[in-house]
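Lab notebook page, bench 4
Experiment: in silico fold of construct C2
Operator: M.H.
Input chain length: 373 residues
Purpose: comparison with the prior construct
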Amino acid sequence: MKISMKQYFYLILITAVFFACKKQDSAYVITVPATGIKGFVASATDLSLSESNSDLNVVTFSFNAPDYGVKVIPSYTLQFTLPADTSGDKAWANAIEVKVATDSLRKTFKGADFNALLALQLLLPVDVSSKIAVRLKSDVHQNSGQASSVASVYATLTMMVKPYRSFVEYPALLVKGGNSWRTPAERTNGYLLASAKFNDKYEGYLDLPNADGWGGDKFNLISTKDGVSYGWGGSATTVAITTLDGFWLTPAPNYMKVNVDLAAMTINYTPVHFFISGDDNGWSTSSTPMVYNAETRVWTASNVALTAGKTFAFSSNGNYDISYKLDKAENGVLTFAGAPAWGGVNIPVAKTGVFTVTLDLSAGDGNYTYSLK
């Protein structure tokens, strides 16, 4: 059979187009890197944290971009957990996750933020060196942002860390009990209101014992700045400079949130009972009560079932008017989340389990803490 020049030309053209298409298709095939993520390192592998480096950059995790064979923009996630949680059927299931910024190949932590991650989220013991595992995960998502069929790739390292207990001694008004109410002579948690912004506004929680049985407890507030004594200002919500006339907060006995504004010379107080509200109890404000221990001055809820990936908050009095969440998810610092600002971020649960949850408000505003054990 003879082939004309015209037919021969078309045959060559079709063949060229076919191979061009094959080449184009192969250019857009994503290949999972067989070697994972190269160059994953930490700038410090034996890290001791303290107040002195809380505002400094203490560790940077860096890595090389994995080669997927084509140009993609992966999303990177750092995972932190204990070495014991890196094997088995649920390996890394309870890890604390921190996203790396898009198009970045590094993540730097300041001391305070990394300390909060270790002490408040991983629940590492403070002032003790512990070994942790850190895993970097790379994912390729669809254009819609949804997960794709491309398998995740990883790189892992270990490091020693020593977190610390963070505490700031803010200016305070110290409780000086009157009549039968005997209070500590020195600054003591549970007997103070603090000024977390170093201004004229003070806040704290006081457990009024009703020492005299008259429905209230007499006390004065002594400034740690200048020793001035404040007391009753002529009404239940006003303040005056006095060493004689004390405050009478009723009803008592009671646990109260107390706010004093020395610029306006006012005092406000509300009886409070705390609850845990979250995903695991349908955000009920009554089904998971906390119990106050007058000896430890801490609120506690025992046998609380929590699920990794879900969140909760501390509510009170059947609502969220007085409630506490985190100021940002990655640092674990409690912040007021109630009216009128309604701020804060729900507290994330890092591990699935049954916990004893504590809420400690005894140190005054700025030093409120919680724990899950």
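Observations: The radius of gyration is 29 Å. The helical segments are 5-27, 111-121.
Next step: discuss at group meeting.
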